[in-house]
Amino acid sequence: MHERTGKKKSRLESWLKSATTPVFLVSVTRRVLFFNTGCEQLTGWTADEVVGEVAEFVSDPEPHSLTAMINSLCPPPEVMTGREQDVPVFLPNKKGTPVAKLIRFVPITEAERVTSVLGIISALPVASHNQPTSMALRYHAELSALRWTLKQRYGLKTVVARSLVMKRVFEQIQLARQTSVAVHFFGPRGVGKEHFARAIHHEVESSFGAFVPLDCRQSPYELQEILKRLLHPQADDTPTTSQHPRTLFLVDVAHLSRDVQERLLTAYREEEKAGKGRPQLPRLMSSSTELLQIAVTEERLLPELYFLLTPLVIEVPSLRKRIDDLEPLAQAFLESLNRGASQQVTGFADSVWPQLREYQWPGNLDELLLVVQEARHNGSGPMIDAKDLPLRFRAGLDAQSINPVRRNLIEEPIPHLEAHLAAVERDLIRRALAQTKQNKTQAAKLLGIPRPVLYRRMAALGLAVL
Questions:
Q1: Where are the beta strands (DSSP E) in 187-326?
Q2: N or C: at which end does the chain have fewer Cβ atoms within 10 angstroms?
Q3: What is the DSSP letter of 433?
Q4: d(CA 194, CA 196)
Q5: CB 346 within 8 A of CB 383
Q6: Number of C-beta neighbours around residue 101 at 10 A
Q7: Looking at the domain covering 182-310, what would its CATH class be?
Q8: Where are the alpha helices (DSSP H) in 155-284?
Q9: What pLDDT is stored for residue 409 in this prediction?
Q10: Whole-number Å distance between alpha carbons of 353 and 135
Q11: Which CATH superfamily groups domain 2-133?
């Protein structure tokens, strides 16, 4: 038996070494075992640089990154169960442009157990371009292509979007990257305003200093002390370039107290009068959930500060207004969770997408990330299934169907989200218990949760557990 296994392994190694087609070999732990000459010529990296590294099922926009190239060699988790898969990829190149290729992942088995995976790289047929049989693999391929396109067109590495409504945002961000003027972001909570500000900073200002977010809802005394250190460092302070504040991001700027507003104005007016070449004070960026003109009209914001903060204003839309971005955003969040994880997850089952698209997403991108995190934690397979979606999400979806959102009726009172979801969850549990005649094991099955979770939720919601 051992002799036959040894001969089989020897024949495989001989074929791999002699093959002119780009081929590689990956272990069940996703470690690269072999990287032939064809792969070296195609990617620009040598076997010495690649063999021994671990691949992850993650899309990466950096075309000349060794990590991105290695990750493109990662087989989908389904291959480890014995299923052969074709995956379109944008294969990074050390010196040139990434190329669209097709990787056929072939599981190699011994005694009916997958021991390694052979990867065969070939040209991507025009007829099957970006159209793998699995929807999850299709979204993975589309995410890779989207990241590369955004990197090329706008220079953005960490932002994912394809909707028309985001095109204007990207164009404004590109303008912000070409100047040093103050930028103000407004939009609902959870839409990623700080993320966009960081994207601008890292592309333009990061070599000059740090990005410093400042929550304007802190006490005026705390804010005064922080601004004193940021805007007027002591002579004996010798921060390194990476520690020196280069961008000051004012979160919820409409909440600044009057004396803090005046301190900011004084500091930036004095610098403007001094006119010393490159500004010494940090570049100002800010955010709000309302139009700052409203805060000015209500005399909560000084008009002079308003004009200082708003040379460039970028409105960031809610997730519902950019619902076409849902698939790449969810896929990007999921793949980011694959980094460093022992279990890799390909994507979402087809049954998940209608539910994700139907949901209203009151918490926007922050809520989407939380749902993806919890679903990944709940699942145990290679893909997120509908049953893995968090109970809170499913309760919210049911609440929408019971009491549909009437977007045009502004006068309709909005209940507190937590209280509303708790009421819906309490009602679902009571209905499940009534239907099963108080059998908690059967009720938990109806709700799609483990029995210990049902007990914890009943206790948290004030329902009798006994």
A1: 210-215, 245-251, 283-288, 312-315
A2: C
A3: H
A4: 5
A5: yes
A6: 18
A7: alpha beta
A8: 165-177, 193-204, 220-231, 258-274
A9: 45
A10: 10
A11: PAS domain (3.30.450.20)
The more confidently predicted of residues 63 and 215 is 215
Secondary structure (3-state) at 179? coil
- Stated length of the chain: 466
The encoded tokens of residue 429 equal 């549990």
Q: Given pLDDT bands bounded at 50, 70 and 90, which one contains residue 458?
A: confident
Considering only CA atoms, which of 59, 89, 249 is closest in space to residue 151?
A: 59
Q: What is the pLDDT of residues 86-145, one digit of tens each?
A: 998 889 989 888 888 999 999 999 888 999 999 999 998 765 444 555 788 889 988 988
Query: Regarding the domain delimited by 320-460, which CATH topology (the fold level of the hierarchy) does it fall under?
Result: Helicase, Ruva Protein; domain 3 (1.10.8)
Question: Quick one: pLDDT at residue 241?
Answer: 43
Sign of the Cα torsion 420, 423, 425, 428 reads negative
Among residues 195, 222, 224, 225, which one has the least CA distance to residue 211? Answer: 195
Residue given tokens 């934690």 in the structure block = 377
For residue 411, pLDDT over 50 is answered with: no
Reading the block at residue 249, the tokens are 């991001």
The predicted structure's pLDDT at residue 404 = 57
Q: In this structure, which amino acid lies at residue 289?
A: T
Identify the residue whose tokens are 């371009």.
129
Q: Assess whether pLDDT exceeds 80 at residue 19.
A: no
**Which among 7, 28, 8, 25 is positioned nearest to 16, based on CA atoms?**
25
Q: Report CA Rg, the chain.
A: 27
User: What DSSP assignment string belongs to 361-418?
Assistant: -TTHHHHHHHHHHHHHHH--SSEE-GGGS-HHHHHHHHHHHHS---TT-TTSPPPPHH
- Alpha-carbon distance 217 to 225, whole Å? 14
Which amino acid appears at position 73 of this protein?
L
Q: Dump the DSSP string for 25-87.
A: EEETT-BEEEE-HHHHHHHS--HHHHTTPBP-S-----TT-HHHHHHTTPPPGGGGGT--EEE
Q: How far apart are CA 236 and CA 60, in angstroms?
A: 42
Tokens of 375: 């679903």
Whether residue 170 is predicted with pLDDT greater than 60 in this model: the reply is yes
- The residue among 198, 195, 261 whose CA lies nearest residue 227 is 261
Pair of tokens at residue 85: 């898969």
Q: How many CB atoms lie within 10 A of CB 399?
A: 21
Residue 352 has pLDDT above 70, yes or no: yes
Structure tokens at 41: 């010529």
CA atoms of 138 and 158, how far apart (whole Å):
20
Cα 419 to Cα 280: distance, rounded to the nearest angstrom = 48
Q: What residues does 121 pair with on adjacent strands?
A: 103
